[in-house]
Amino acid sequence: MAGRALIPFLAEDLYFDDIFDEINRDAMRMQHDMRNAMMRLAPRDPISARPIGSLQQQLAHLRQPVNTKPDGSKALDLKLDVSNYKPEEIDIRTVGRDVCVHAKHEEKTDNSSVYQEFTRKFTLPEGVDPNAVTSSLSKDGILSISGPVAGALEDAPRNIPIEKK
Q: Across all residues in the chain, what is the average pLDDT?
């Protein structure tokens, strides 16, 4: 040991720090992307189309989309931003206890092409009759899916027409 100098070794000098920094950056980016995706599903103000409430409130709304109306009745209330699609490009249907929303937009020119597709599937809460589910599309592209809490469920697929406001 005599004659050898000890070189200080710091944790910051580890090669793994670069790897962990990269993993951390990727995780932060994924968290940001997930938050943005959840914001697109959030309930929105019908006038400004801005998300209503905090992210936690919005997530709670998606988990339990049945609201109590001022008259005391309960109803399904889902809102989705589909402003990138024309009404004829949006398909909403019930299959058993699920509501499926699918939208597809294709645009081709001589020099470019655009393809967008959107699919969301929600399981109806207990007591919501799939045959009573309705939808409407606001002028600013907010799709509202609603329905009263009612009786029996049926498994036959059914298209849901979009009411234009």
A: 77
- Taking CA atoms, 136 is separated from 49, 90, 92, 141, 147, in Å, by 14, 11, 11, 10, 11
CATH number belonging to domain 63-164: 2.60.40.790
107 annotated as a binding-site residue: yes
pTM value is: 0.54
118-144: pLDDT as tens digits: 888 888 888 888 888 999 998 888 888
Residues 6+ apart with CB under 8 A from 4: none
Complete edge-to-edge strand list for the sheet that includes strand 66-68: 66-68, 74-81, 142-148, 134-137, 162-164
Q: Quote the CA–CA distance of 28 and 145 in Å, as a whole number.
A: 32
End-to-end Cα separation, the chain, in angstroms: 85
